[in-house]
Design a protein that fits this description.
single chain; alpha/beta; five-stranded parallel sheet
Length: 193
């Protein structure tokens, strides 16, 4: 968790002021009111601490060799022109890993009814890999978590990517929230054009 410099004195004040107020109220209005204010202050601090989430940099697997690796998260199938654009962005890549998130809905995942979505993802992976190979890229691939951000994070743990390319189809950017944590370049390519 990172704080701006001016926030630290405010946090200390948020801890100390309610405690001092609780002690003062205990002497003036009785121990019950002081204990209530102290309990409210402590509960507020616990809730604040529980809701704040650390934002560490995403873990990227290490590699012993110096080859250039690109991870492509495909939310749509690349057209030949889009595949060529990805090849231009990847440059002289030694390895391109293609990840296709399983396009399932929350209810399907909850009911463990993802078979159709998994087959759809496998078919999209095969067609997308074919397009990228036709564009001259050395491609390997896998299907990933339905959440594209989680699929990216999972893949980075085992694949030493130097950059990420997000292939979108509908203009939505599911990686915008984790981009500050990425630590490697993220480029976006639209399958529409």
């Amino acid at each position: 968790m990172r704080f701006r410099p001016f926030a630290i004195p405010l946090i200390v004040a948020a801890i100390c002021v309610p405690i001092v107020a609780a002690m003062s109220l205990a002497g003036t209005f009785g121990a019950g009111l002081g204990m209530a204010v102290g309990a409210l202050a402590a509960t507020s601090l616990i809730v604040f601490a529980a809701r704040s989430r650390p934002q560490p940099t995403l873990e990227v697997a290490g590699s012993a060799d110096a080859g250039h690796r690109v991870l492509v998260v495909a939310l749509a199938e690349p057209s030949p022109a889009t595949a060529q654009r990805i090849a231009e962005l990847a440059g002289p890549a030694d390895d391109v890993r293609l990840v296709v998130p399983v396009p399932s809905h929350r209810l399907d995942r909850w009911l463990s009814a993802e078979d159709r979505a998994r087959h759809e993802a496998e078919a999209r992976l095969a067609r997308s890999a074919g397009s990228l190979v036709a564009a001259g890229l050395p491609v390997s691939g896998s299907i990933g978590d339905p959440d594209p951000a989680q699929a990216l994070e999972d893949e980075l743990r085992g694949f030493a990517a130097d950059e990420v390319v997000l292939l979108t189809g509908n203009g939505k950017d599911p990686l915008a929230k984790i981009e500050p944590r990425l630590g490697i370049p993220l480029r976006r390519v639209s399958a529409a054009g």
